[in-house]
Design a protein that fits this description.
The complex is a heterodimer of chains A (about 575) and B (about 425). In chain A, about 25% of the residues lie in helices and about 20% in strands. With about 575 residues, chain A is α+β, with helices and mostly antiparallel strands. In chain A, the strands form seven sheets. In chain A, strands 18-17-23-22-21-19-20 form a seven-stranded mixed sheet. Chain B has 18 helices and eleven strands. The chains are: A alpha+beta (about 575), B alpha/beta (about 425). The complex binds flavin mononucleotide and iron/sulfur cluster (SF4).
Chain lengths: ~575, ~425
Amino acid sequence: MKVTIDNIEHEVNGKPTILELASKVGVEIPHFCYHPGLSISGNCRMCLVEAGTPKMGPNGVELDADGKPVIMWGPKPTTSCSTPVSEGMVVKTGKTSKVIEDAQKGVLEFILINHPLDCPICDQAGECPLQENTFKFGPEGSRFEFEKNHKPKRVELGPNVMFDAERCINCTRCVRFSDEVAKAPQLTVIQRGDHNYIATFPGIELDNPYAMNVIDICPVGALTSKHFRFKSRVWEMSETDTICTGCANGCNVKMWVKNNEILRQTPRENQAVNQWWMCDEGRLGFKSLNENRVSGPRFKGSELSWEAASSQLADSLKSVQASELAVVVSPFATLEDNYASIKFFKKLGVKTFVRYQHVKGQDDHLLIKADKTPNQAALDLLEGIAGKFTTGEKLAAAIESGSIKGLVVIEENPFGNGLSDSLKSKLSILVSFSTNWDETAKLADLVIPAASVAETIGTFINAKGIIQKVRPAKVLKLQNRSLMRETGLSRWDKHAWKYDKWAQPTHVTDAKPTWEVLESAASAVGVEVSFKSPEQIFSKAASEIAVLKDVTYEKIGTAGVQLTSSAKTEAVLS
Amino acid sequence: MISLAGYEKVILPDIPNLNQIAVYEKHGGYEGLKKAVSLSQDDVINEVKKSGLRGRGGAGFPTGLKWSFMPKGDKVRYLACNGDEGEPGTFKDRQIFEFNPHLFIEGTLIACYAMGIKTAYVYIRGEYVKWINILQASLDEAYAKGYVGQNILGKGFNTDIVIHRGAGAYICGEESSLMNSLEGKRPYPRIKPPFPAQVGLWGQPTTINNIETLANAAVILRKGADWYSKIGAEKHPGPVLYGISGHVNKPGVYEGPTGMSLKELIYDVAGGIKNGKKLKAVIPGGSSTPILTPESVEKATMDADGLRAVGTSMGTAGIIVMDEDTDLVEALHILSKFYHHESCGQCTPCREGTGWLEKIVGKFAAGTATQQDYDLLLKICANMEGRTVCALADAAAWPVRNTITRFKEEFEARMIENKNKAGWDYSMKAVSGV
Ligand SMILES: Cc1cc2nc3c(=O)[nH]c(=O)nc-3n(C[C@H](O)[C@H](O)[C@H](O)COP(=O)(O)O)c2cc1C
Ligand code: SF4
């Protein structure tokens, strides 16, 4: 089927709406209430276009003197979000139609007459569709000279979401999201006319597990995050494309960082993984990446230099028989750290590799998985190299019986997951590579600070078998060049300013990726390994694991690759 | 010339206690239904098409054509009977509920038979408590007599009629909003397409008709399409209830043929202007229809063509008469307030435009408006008309546009010189103009 938009003819498959077709072929049609993940409401009237169809005569399409089809134009502008294209349809957007250009100006003037225009103190400024559309399509001023309507401000809709009714433009995206996607109908519009605004039903809070997505889809600053509001202007932060590691779903996210501190996390579209959404728990999970971090190596409570930590690690490992040493691998750590650890300790002669499960509740209807770990699927693959993993219970029994005398923990927390503190006294060494001060880090003799998922590069395989990559949103105290290359930058980072993450000592963790520490101790313990960068480690792993054979970092990109049992790979998104 | 002389009343005949089923039956009641069920469904629809009946709810859509849009087959489908009657100046469906409820019930049953509908909802304006009770009593009688319910007239045709009390907003009378309200949702109008005949109540094919329209359907089946189509204006035939209000000696609802002269209705039927005053303006079909000057009233006949010729429309035939003492600025201010208050607020131009119009008309009322305000009113109207989900925005803009242009002097008399023009003006080249 052929459809013409602004004098350019497009070949169309399927039956998209005018707006869907326009966005696919790169014609901008401004809109507010339309969202690809929600039902069509058609209320904002911003996406109006002129549309016409060929006039049909007795002998098919009627032609004019030039042999072109005669077009029957609709009697009035139509909403492109709700109008499907049809054969021979001709569409004019604001670029080619004065009527539409004026309609767009009119709608924006209307929206703004009762809008507080408080952009200078609004969190949404800088990423606000209303601001952007007004700039691009709006009138040059306002002819409204009356006092604006007043409505409730600073309304707590729920534990995480704050509402400003004066900024609300009644697009109902949030209402539709709650009904249709979260399946938690907690919001509605109340009042009528220009007194309209959204509210929760009486006695109900906006507290569903996906509630904070309404903040992202709000096209103005009416819905803001209680955790993020007034923390930073949008343009002062860097944004890094990475993934959430809060459960086995691996939702795609952007991490927003200022002064090397993560201030918020927002979902990033990936149709195969999380569409446009993420859960609130995952969204707020970044707090452990900022706080309570292990910074700088410690041995029995005293700080050490990294050199001293390396030799202490070697000494500790040499102090027990490899056969009496157990290594706890981690479904929270990257495939690369797990692979490097397994390789390192296998070479040392270790036979016992332990893996913990972390299952809580049930999978829900949307994204949340019962498996609260992001990378069990990678451990499944690595089991072929490590040998069958031992369970936590068996490990406890082996320590109890004395057959295991030394324990190395790689980014896991056995003492927080059923291993009794009393068993610590039966261990002659306890080494923990830890991101945070958890139970295990607190008990350990040697604590090696590990780079978190916000500071490293590495891969995770989600419950659907999609392999994805985390990228560093924050920098570590000691820069690692292989990590720096992928670190997200803000507009300001590139020019160096005072909140530059490279410049300030605050919020910087003194940690290293586990693979880097292992390599630094390798020669001292007499194992031969070469770990140079996550990518190099990944390609080693890929050469050993059939399903990873054709996968590369480049192919994984920011969208991930669906792994198949036949070892064939395909990009999930182009 | 069409006139009341010799006209026989069929919608509201002068028969006492017609709301009682025995009385109604005695005067030919339910004969139309009996006729209908002896015909095929398509024949009933064709009969209504042939009669030329056009909807009495405001838009004047041909009723038979509307019925024929309902898809065939055995999908569950509904009829929604629109008795919300919120349009200012309109109070005629109420009379049917009070004086001839069975005629409406009969028409509803005929519509259900013709379209294969098993459930009809009657959406009645919430304030109409008295009339809801009357209708309910009549409906109970009709159920008891076997006209409604299972196996109607022994023909194996089943239809239930359910009365639903409205939630009290003008917008609930808009057909798609009415459906949302019936479903228990916020009464936001729906975007069309899809039209109700495809996706209506609970997603099923639905037809929405005004109460008076359905009452007319019963008359058509009882008296025949040929008889019906000869009443009143040729292209817009039938009996119609004229609701005449305002500065007349005998305000009220009067039944007559369509196409009557507006003058006859005001001066003869309604007894002329109160206190012998002169006429200033008439709104012919409910507050949303454009206002007429006395010169236009002279020429106007009450049918689609006759009113189009003077730049207005039939609407609900609710005629609002205003005498020479009427302050049209204040009248428009009240109307603008009404539309501002009743805009559902779903779509931008109406939500924001209705309030803005009211505020500017308020400046005229307060005597502080300028020429710029006058021009701006027209520009705001242009940005509202045809840009919204439902017709309320048009209904709000037209009275403003037509009152300020047709009675321009009256508005000019309330304007002040624009002394501080340099301060700010409407020169914004970016905004559309008229
Ligand atoms: C704002 C608005 C209010 C309306 N209110 C009513 C009403 O109160 N009663 C009514 O019958 N139609 C009303 N209508 C018209 C209905 O949408 C619809 O056209 C009508 O009920 C169809 O019936 P008919 O074809 O029998 O005329 C309204 C329309 C609009 C736009
Ligand atoms: S035009 Fe007005 S009443 Fe109709 S849907 Fe839009 S806001 Fe609501």
